[in-house]
Amino acid sequence: MPYDLHPACEFLMPIKFTCPHCGHRTSASEAYAGSSGPCVQCGVTIKLPGDRADLASPGRLADIGRTPDIGDTPVVAQAPDAVPTPGKSTGCMSTVLLVLVALGMVMLLFAGMDCHNEPRRRSECNNNLKRIGIALLGYYDEHRSFPPAYITDENGQPMHSWRVLILPYMEQSALYAEYDFDEPWDGPHNRRLMAKCPAEFHCPSDPSDKKISRYQVVVGPGTGWKANEGLRIEEITDGTSLSIAVIEADTGRNWLDPTPLALEDLLLSFDRREPHPGGGNVVMFDASVHFLHSDTGRDTLRRMLLINDGERVNF
């Protein structure tokens, strides 16, 4: 426990010394010159330099209300190196502030670049859906119906996706020829094609892997998509320009995955995530593309997905 200077000894100078055992630098009141005691750092007994031990006698120290045993009390230690240097502290703080400011500026720069690029990505997404819409019409011209949402196996399980069926109408005939319709979409051969997703199936604003597509068709009673059977234009009594063919959903799947998006599942998750700030793109059965705002009501979205309910919704 450190000794305090006696009021009568305030004029005494502190003794600075170094422990010969551990090298610890410290200081003590001159009143304890010549006294012995354990080093505050290593505990080994050391003797203070000087010959003023008489000033540290018990009688003298009793005047300040205590009688220390200098053999049991560590020598007062205040390392000069531990005293903070104002110049060094100020310099460190300045450096930290400069680093924080620089990081903030970099973050703002990247945020600004991202905001600047979003209109371009949204435009590319629009073009992707336009090409998909044109490919759907190309399929229709040859088959006199739109493609089915998926083709099933003998057990009724989805086996091949509508995306694969429209490849020849997207200038992807070579990729279409590589696909093996005799095995499932995730079979040994077709699995090798999973990474060959055409750019038109991937939204540039989607941060997920580029083989993932969130352009999906919606199945359910009254929609334009079902298994194994294509839709004819005359069935779309609400009008091809008012009925959604493909929607940019909030989640995606591998472009070969034929798993459909159920109408009720879409309605439940529609307002949870925005593919783009403020909403997402849709392509109608006439290949026109529109931006569907995220504040669109679920009932309105349902009417736009149903093709013959008599409830026509204009953009």
TrEMBL record:
Alphabetically ordered keywords of this record: Membrane, Transmembrane, Transmembrane helix
Highest taxon, organism lineage: Bacteria
Coiled-coil stretches: none
This protein's record includes keyword Glycoprotein: no
Record-linked InterPro entries: DUF1559, Pre_pil_HX9DG_C
Transmembrane segments: 93-113
Domain DUF1559 stretches: 121-208
Name of the molecule in the record: DUF1559 domain-containing protein
The species this protein was found in: Lignipirellula cremea
